[in-house]
Structure formats: structure tokens, C-alpha cells
Specification:
The complex is a heterodimer of chains A (543) and B (396). Chain A has 543 residues and is α+β, with helices and mostly antiparallel strands. Helices cover 28% and strands 32% of the residues of chain A. In chain B, helix 9 packs parallel to helix 11 (364-388). The structure holds protoporphyrin IX containing FE.
């Protein structure tokens, strides 16, 4: 690699250096890189060190590298992602529309032609679209490239700063002053005060560099690192092992294997509790509760026992369960076991038993002759009743509905149970058929002597638990933490440097900060208070 | 318990009065001969009153917490009031870094407006639904509002910068936009005034709305300029709506909220025009001479510094704590809910702001405009997202 030797101090600089790393003298032929003009202030970003992106622009790799290392490109990517994100909030995303409708119909009906276009452009699933992912990925690449392009040169430049700088370098700093014949006393006072403000002073032949807050320069790189770790964490979710997302419905009293655990864990639902606020008990909320049309939920809770199955490995073996944990699962309070978390996500109430009685069709008082109860999760087919009646359960539809006039069951859950019973009256050989359900009781032939009527029912709750195991969470936490450390490090402090340069009878003071110039100028003003030193002038203001 | 709530409300009222007084004292500092950041007895009284007002609002907060049993950030009134408190806190902190009196003259009226705005919403204690019963929720909400409040200080400083620097000798896009910003403050005032008037007269108009899910009712507390689509007015002697609310506005409450918005804009416009008539020039042009002594570089730096301080706090509260809470409550740390997305948009925006300033040299006026846009995004997320875009967060 070519090196550039500084005419003033003889230091050998890397190709592409703008300001000599040792003395800061502008390297004539490279001034265009940072847009420095002869008489104007120096561009001090990255201390004029050689950056790959500013030095090479020949090969294809160079061009790609330079593209991604440009902050302008980075900002464009951020702005594009911002606009795209906003686009996705114009109408609800698909996951927020009702589940039981055709998405296209839904968007068209709700939002007209705009909704249809929205759907057809795929904006209803914008955040998982390939182009949104690509935008995020480009930001990721840009962060990595831009950071590497700058952090190494910046590190080198800041590590080997010399207190003694070239005059041109000092004169062309933004904050600058020249004091003629300063008193030694005043200079000492100034230096002492710098120290008391926790500046670190280094000296070379009477030339002094006072510096503080250098660590803050690494802030952006630390926060970018955090962002990248976070992005990687988010990507790892697509690896099946890293992320398990299941759902179980468990009835009260039921014990079921927990999906996603390969039958290693079982859960028993001892009790599901659903509570609402009560105007009497929660007096302080009475006014708000009166304004609500429906009761306000205060608690959803599953009291659960977790078992471990010692026979999990053996396919088809009877589970051998050992109780390992007992506790309640509430919203905001998941139950955790062995990396898995169980979340209270949903619940349903369903019928658990239904009881019926038989009376004579003509009896106005509907006097009960016999009764029986059907256990809906485990219905028995044959019932022998009092007074010699027998009942056969011919057909059971747990979730009854009419499909073009034909009775069917929508699901296997007893949400709306209906039955066809064959009733054998005492001493009769031919049965009578009855159709019974909630609010219906149909006599198939219209000639039945006996009628089946609903006596009562029990309901039970079924709790819906989300089962999650997410190994990416710690990675995201670490990424977030590093990001926070980095932004605070970068934004809550400033890197300030003050060069004190004796020149003949004069004392030159030049100063630079990476941000908050007004603050630096004010600080120097107070440090120079009641001395004869000339206050630094903001040369950018003057122009 | 009721007693405690009303004592707490009185402290909030006290805070309001103290801020109002402090605003006048900050106004008094304009006349002082030296620069606007000098310390005189007037400015000391001003900041003293501000601090007292803040302490009074802290008492409000604590008493209300005790009364309700949960941190009072759970409904629109509580949350918005808290945002107003945090705005004052952020101002006090910035004041002690830079001691710029004029900043108080801009921030405190905004805080006053916000608190007044908040108290237009139902102020009764509200019960928490299970998903809101989480310490992470309090931590999330309080940190977000603190972050947004600091970012709002950046807006106030940016506004000062723009009023001082934008050339008022001729009409331009910049002067127009500046007037629009000022008008939006008037619209907020319009909301407060019109809501107070009609709530004092107990105005009520009920609509019956028929849709797929049956018949429901919707109560208006302002005369209906815009009514619910498929709604019929059932209260007698009330104004019939002029037109229907467009269907793309989401949520059962949308027509009423939209109606309120229209009223606010209209009343704000009346106030604005009256002021213009009195001043006989653009409002920014009328304020400009009072800012002559303000150091633009200082104001620019305050505006940037507020972003530098606010951005990490916002990230922590609005993204990180929000994700932790979402993970506990809904077992997913991110769900692309509109409110979440707009928090992300806010974050992207301020990230772009910081990069433009650091690398592209966007200082001064450009930076001030960005501060204004950022605040507009925040306000959009606080107010409009709930109106136009429905989502999980619609409790607030
Ligand atoms: C949304 C994602 C990003 C966030 C939150 C972020 C955050 C930050 C922050 C807070 C700073 C410090 C700014 C200051 O001190 O005023 C910074 C600096 C910087 N960022 Fe980013 N950044 C992001 C994306 C990018 C991208 C895509 C690029 C690619 C070009 C990039 C390149 C830089 C550079 C070059 C610096 C300046 C470093 C220095 O001067 O030492 N950033 N970033």
C-alpha cells in the first residue's frame, strides 16, 4: 500500500488521509475528500483519517462498500422503512381482521376500492413481505459497513494524537483564539481549571492537549452493535429449534400433554377462574363501571398442575406422571417451566353435562316419568331409566348447525349440543325418535307418545393457553441492553479537545467538540474567567 | 376514597394555577435589558413557581395512586396529565442546564394546554382489565411519556428558533407552515373551550346506530356536525348532523371523536382569525421582535440536546419496556399494532434526525423543522392513531 509522508512532521500516513494523523497538517492532494477549502474551517469528522470508502472507488466491491457506508444512503433507507411502516397502518393488517371471513371480501366491504387495492398489493401483510424484510436487511448491512468503515480509522486517529499540532490545523479549528503576551499565571490558572473540570492533559514541548469524553465517540458503534445483535436475534426466530409456539385447550379437571414439549410435560386444569369488577365491592370504580355496558373483566386465571412424564421417550407408552409444579396462570403472569412459558390467552365455556326428562306428550303439566344425564365429553350410548324406560343415544352433534337442511356438527367441542334419541317406552318394542337440543325438541314423526325435555345443564370452562419457548429472547435482551449503553454513551457526553499552543509571544487556543459547540464555548469562557486570555471565537459564526 | 380523589384533583388545579403564574413571570423576563438567559429576581420567581407547580402535580399523582390502587396512567385523562407533568419536569431539567428564560414562555403554555386538554376527558378512577395489570405497563408508560416530553422540549426550542429566524418580511411556504403550527395550538385551545362550554350545559345528543352487530347507541356531548353513518338522532331538539362520518374511520366511537375534532378546528380557527385581526400581521411576525435578544445558536443547541437526551429515554420506554410488557401480557414482544408501529416510526424519525445532524450538517433551521415534525408524529400517535387506526391500545 502506498503511504503518504507528512511534509511537516515526517509521519507516514495511510493513503487517503486528509489530515496528518500526527500533526494535523492538511495533506494537500486529499483535501477534496472531506470538501475542505483552503481558507475555510477543517472538516474534523473522523479527524481526517483515511477511510476505505473515501479512498477506493474502482472495483465492484469498492462500489458496494461505498454505497452502504454512506450515511446519506443509510438515512434514505431509514426514511423509506419509516414510510413503508406508516403505509401498513392505513388499514388493519390481516392478523387483526376477523378470522371467519375471506380477507379480500373483508377489505373490499370495509374499505371499498382502496381496501381492495390495499389487499391486492399485499399491504395487508406488509411487515412480513419480502420487500419490507429486504429494507430491514439493507439497514442492517448499512449499519455494519458504515460502522466498520469509520470505527477503525477513528480508533487509530484518536489513539495516537499528539499534543503538538500544526499551525494550519489549529487556525482552521472552529473555536480559536490568539492571546498576545499572556501572563504565565493566567495560563497556569487556565490549566488548573481544565484539570478540575476533569480534562486529561498531555504535554509535548510546552504544547498541551486537554481532552475529555473520548469514550463517547465509541457510542454509535456500540449502539449499532446492539442493533445488529437484536436483528440477528429476531432472525433466529425462523430457526425451528429456537422458537416454539403452540396452543392448548384444557378443560377443567382434564390432564393433557403440553404441545411442543414432545409429551414430556402434562398440564392439569384444576380450575378456571373468571372474575369481573363489582360495583359494590370496588366502590372506587363504581362511576366508571356504570358507564360501561358490559361487565369489566378483572381476572382470567387457570389453576394448574404441571407433570413430568417419565415415559416421554417411549412412543405409545402409558404416561408415567410426576407432579413438578403447581401454580396459577394469569394474564401478565405466565407460568414458567424448563424454558417453556404458559400464557393465559383465551377461554371458552362449554356444556359439560345435559340432563333430560321424559313426559307424556299430552300431559300439560309435563310430569316427569324418568330422567337421565348425558356426559358431553364422554357420552354413554344406552340409558336404563326408572319406570322401565330405556333411551338409546342414536346421534350426538356437539356443535350443531344446519347445513342445507342437514344437521351437522361444526366442531368437536360441545358448544351447541344436539342429540337424536331413541326412546323405548316400557313394554314397547319399537322406539320413538326425538331430536333434542338447546331450545329445540322435535318429534321426528309427530306421533310420539312421549317427549324428551331439557332438565338442566352444567357448564365448565376450557382454558386456552399459549405455549412458548423462545431462546431468542436473551439475545434480544442483550442487543437491547448494548444498544441502550451505546446511545447513552454517545449522546449524554461530548468529546472535547482543547489545544494550547505557545507560539513566540503568543498563546494560541483552539478547541474542537463532536457536538454541542455552544456548550464547549461557554465552558472555555468560564475556565478563562478573570484571566487576560482572549476568549475563543466561533469562527463559523463569523463567516 | 372520594375525598382523596377530590383532594388530589385540587392539587392538580393548584399546579395549573402555578404554571399559569410562572408563565407570566417568564413573560416578564423578556423585558429585562440583558440577554434572555440572565438571572433576575423575575426569572427566579418564575422557575420557583414552576417547581412548586411540579411538586403540586406530584402530590396529585401520589394521592390518586393511593386512591385507585394503581399508578394513575391508565386512562386518557391520567395519561395525558402525566405527559403534561413530564413536560414540565423536562423543562426544569433543561432550564438548569441552559437557564434560558424564553424556553419557559413557550413550554409552560404547551403544558397548560395539555393539562387542560386532559381534563376534558372522564376523570373518574377506572378499573384495570387483566392485560393492563402489570408493573411493566407502568414502567413502560411513564418512561415513554418522559421521553416524549423531553422530545417535546426540542419542539418548543425549535419553534422559538423558527419564529426568530424565518424571514417574515414576505410571505413564503415557511411562514405559512409556521402559522399552521401556531394554529394547531389554537385548535387545542378550541377543543378545551368548546368542550368546557357544552359540558357546563350538560349537552347530550344520543344516536341509535344500526350495523351488522345490531343496534347500539352513541352519545354526543357536542352538537353533531358529523353523525355516525346509519345513525338516527333520538334525542329531541338537537341539531341534525350535516353529514356522515366516513366509513374508514375505525371504532364505534370514531364519529363522536371526529365530530369533536371538527369542532376544535373550527373554534381554533375563529380564535386564530380574531388574533390575526387584532395583530394585523402573521402571529409569528408579531412574536418575532420579542425574540431579538435570543441567541439562535443556543436555542438550536437546546433543541438538539433535548433530542439527544430524549431519544434514549424514548427507546427504553417506547420500545424496550414496551416489548417486555407485550411479551408478558400477550406472549409476543411485537405485534405490529398501529400504536407500536407509530412508536417505531417515531424512533426511526429521530434516528434520521440524529444522523442528518451529525453527518449531513443539518443544523439550525433544518434541524428546527425536523424537531417540529417529530413532535407532530408524537402527537399523531398520542391522539390520532386512536381515532383513525384501531388497535389493541385503544384503551387510551
Ligand atoms: C435505525 C437504525 C439506527 C439507529 C437507531 C442509529 C443510531 C445512531 C445514533 C444514536 C448515533 C449517534 C448520533 C449522534 O451522536 O448524534 C449514530 C451515529 C451514526 N450512525 Fe447510526 N443508527 C442507525 C442506523 C444507521 C445506518 C443505517 C447507518 C448507515 C449509514 C448508520 C451510520 C451511522 C454513522 C456513520 C454514525 C456516526 C458515527 C460517528 O460519527 O462516530 N446508522 N447512529
Amino acid at each position: 500500500m502506498k503511504r503518504i509522508v507528512c511534509e511537516a512532521c515526517g509521519h507516514s500516513n495511510a493513503e487517503g488521509t486528509v489530515l496528518c494523523q500526527s500533526c494535523g497538517k492538511p495533506i494537500e492532494k486529499n483535501q477534496h475528500i472531506d470538501g475542505n477549502e483552503k481558507t475555510k474551517l477543517l472538516n474534523m469528522r473522523y479527524d481526517g483519517s483515511a477511510r476505505r470508502s473515501q479512498t477506493y472507488n474502482k472495483s465492484f466491491v469498492d462500489k458496494i462498500w461505498n454505497f452502504f457506508s454512506s450515511v446519506k444512503v443509510g438515512v434514505w433507507l431509514i426514511v423509506l422503512t419509516l414510510l413503508a411502516s406508516a403505509l401498513g397502518t392505513i388499514f388493519p393488517q390481516e392478523m387483526y381482521i376477523p378470522q371467519d371471513v375471506q380477507p379480500l371480501d373483508h377489505y373490499r366491504e370495509q374499505y371499498g376500492i382502496a381496501g381492495q387495492i390495499y389487499y391486492q398489493l399485499g399491504l395487508h401483510n406488509l411487515y412480513s413481505s419480502w420487500w419490507y424484510m429486504i429494507l430491514i436487511a439493507l439497514i442492517g448491512i448499512s449499519i455494519v459497513v458504515a460502522s466498520i468503515d469509520r470505527v477503525v480509522p477513528l480508533y487509530k486517529a484518536l489513539k495516537m494524537q499528539k499534543p503538538k499540532r500544526h499551525e494550519t490545523f489549529l487556525k482552521r479549528q472552529r473555536l480559536f483564539s490568539q492571546t498576545n503576551q499572556p501572563s504565565l499565571n493566567d495560563k497556569e490558572k487556565f490549566l488548573e481549571r481544565l484539570k478540575s473540570k476533569r480534562y486529561k492533559l498531555t504535554e509535548e514541548d510546552g504544547h498541551i492537549l486537554a481532552e475529555k469524553g473520548r469514550f463517547t465517540r465509541w457510542g454509535p458503534y456500540v449502539n449499532h452493535l446492539g442493533l445488529i445483535i437484536f436483528l440477528i436475534g429476531a432472525l433466529l426466530r425462523f430457526v425451528p429449534f429456537m422458537y416454539i409456539d403452540e396452543f392448548v385447550w384444557v378443560r377443567e379437571g382434564e390432564t393433557l400433554p403440553i404441545k411442543g414439549t414432545e409429551r414430556e410435560y402434562y398440564i392439569e386444569n384444576n380450575d378456571f377462574i373468571f372474575e369481573t369488577y363489582d360495583e359494590e365491592e370496588d366502590r372506587k370504580f363504581a362511576e366508571a363501571l356504570q358507564n360501561q355496558s358490559a361487565p369489566v373483566a378483572s381476572n382470567y386465571q387457570t389453576d394448574a398442575v404441571i407433570y413430568r412424564n417419565h415415559e416421554a421417550e417411549l412412543v405409545g407408552a402409558e404416561p408415567d406422571l410426576e407432579k413438578v409444579k403447581e401454580g396459577s396462570i394469569r394474564v401478565n403472569h405466565p407460568l414458567k417451566i424448563d424454558g417453556f412459558s404458559l400464557y393465559q390467552s383465551s377461554y371458552q365455556s362449554e356444556f359439560s353435562t345435559m340432563s333430560f326428562y321424559i313426559h307424556e306428550t299430552d300431559d300439560k303439566d309435563e310430569q316427569e316419568l324418568a330422567n337421565f344425564t348425558v356426559d358431553l365429553s364422554n357420552p354413554v350410548n344406552h340409558y336404563e331409566l326408572d319406570n322401565g324406560f330405556e333411551v338409546e343415544l342414536v346421534r350426538y352433534m356437539p356443535d350443531y348447525y344446519l347445513d342445507d337442511g342437514e344437521p351437522k356438527s361444526k366442531t368437536d367441542y360441545p358448544n351447541n349440543p344436539a342429540f337424536v334419541f331413541a326412546v323405548y317406552p316400557p313394554d314397547a318394542s319399537e322406539p320413538e325418535y326425538s331430536f333434542a337440543g338447546i331450545g329445540r325438541n322435535i318429534d321426528a314423526t309427530g306421533e310420539n307418545d312421549y317427549k324428551i325435555a331439557l332438565n338442566g345443564f352444567d357448564v365448565q370452562y376450557v382454558t386456552g393457553l399459549a405455549v412458548k419457548r423462545d431462546y431468542t429472547l436473551p439475545i434480544l435482551m442483550i442487543g437491547g441492553l448494548i444498544f441502550m449503553i451505546g446511545v447513552v454513551q454517545g449522546l449524554y457526553w461530548q468529546h472535547r479537545r482543547i489545544w494550547i499552543h505557545p507560539k513566540g509571544n503568543e498563546l494560541w487556543v483552539a478547541a474542537h467538540t463532536n457536538k454541542n459547540w455552544y456548550g464547549l464555548k461557554r465552558e472555555i469562557d468560564t475556565l478563562m474567567e478573570d484571566t487576560s486570555l482572549i476568549r475563543v471565537v466561533d469562527q463559523q459564526e463569523q463567516k | 376514597m372520594d375525598g382523596l380523589v377530590s383532594i388530589s384533583s385540587n392539587f392538580l388545579y393548584l399546579a395549573f394555577v402555578l404554571y399559569l403564574a410562572a408563565t407570566f413571570f417568564f413573560g416578564g423576563t423578556i423585558r429585562s435589558k440583558n440577554s434572555t438567559s440572565s438571572q433576575t429576581w423575575v426569572s427566579r420567581v418564575a422557575i420557583g413557581l414552576t417547581i412548586l407547580g411540579f411538586l403540586a402535580s406530584v402530590v396529585y399523582f401520589i394521592l390518586r395512586w393511593i386512591a385507585s390502587g394503581h399508578a394513575p396512567v391508565s386512562n386518557l385523562f391520567e395519561f395525558t396529565t402525566f405527559f403534561g407533568m413530564m413536560l414540565v419536569l423536562a423543562f426544569i431539567v433543561m432550564y438548569f442546564i441552559y437557564r434560558l428564560n424564553i424556553l419557559g414562555l413557550f413550554v409552560l403554555p404547551v403544558a397548560l394546554l395539555i393539562i387542560a386538554y386532559a381534563s376534558m376527558f372522564p376523570t373518574e378512577l377506572s378499573p384495570l382489565v387483566p392485560s393492563l395489570k402489570s408493573h411493566w405497563l407502568y414502567i413502560h408508560v411513564t418512561t415513554v411519556s418522559l421521553g416524549e416530553a423531553v422530545l417535546a422540549v426540542s419542539f418548543a426550542a425549535g419553534l422559538i428558533y423558527l419564529i426568530k429566524e424565518v424571514d417574515q418580511s414576505y410571505r413564503s411556504k415557511r411562514t405559512t407552515w409556521l402559522e399552521i403550527i401556531i394554529y394547531s395550538l389554537y385548535a387545542t385551545l378550541g377543543f378545551v373551550v368548546i368542550s368546557s362550554i357544552f359540558s357546563a350545559t350538560d349537552y347530550n345528543a344520543t344516536f341509535e346506530v344500526t350495523n351488522e352487530s345490531g343496534v347500539s347507541t352513541l352519545e354526543y356531548h357536542l352538537p353533531a356536525i358529523t353523525g355516525p353513518a346509519d345513525g338516527t338522532l333520538v334525542t329531541t331538539d338537537r341539531m341534525e348532523p350535516w353529514f356522515d362520518t366516513p366509513g374508514w374511520m375505525n371504532g364505534a366511537e370514531a364519529p363522536r371523536k371526529f365530530n369533536t375534532l371538527l369542532w376544535s378546528f373550527a373554534v381554533g380557527l375563529v380564535f386564530y382569525l380574531i388574533t390575526r385581526l387584532i395583530l394585523r400581521k402573521r402571529i409569528a411576525a408579531a412574536i418575532q421582535p420579542y425574540l431579538r435578544k435570543v441567541n439562535s445558536d443556543l436555542v438550536d443547541e437546546i433543541s438538539y440536546r433535548a433530542v439527544a437526551i430524549g431519544f434514549p429515554i424514548f427507546t427504553l420506554g417506547g420500545l424496550i419496556f414496551a416489548m417486555i410488557w407485550a411479551q408478558e401480557a400477550w406472549n409476543r414482544y411485537w405485534g405490529w399494532d398501529p400504536k407500536e408501529v407509530w412508536a417505531l416510526i417515531t424512533w426511526f424519525f429521530y434516528a434520521a434526525f440524529l444522523h442528518l445532524r451529525l453527518s449531513q450538517g443539518w443544523h439550525g433551521e433544518k434541524s428546527a423543522w425536523l424537531a417540529v415534525v417529530g413532535f407532530a408524529i408524537i402527537m399523531f400517535n398520542l391522539i390520532a392513531v386512536n381515532l383513525v387506526l384501531a388497535g389493541l391500545h385503544s384503551y387510551a
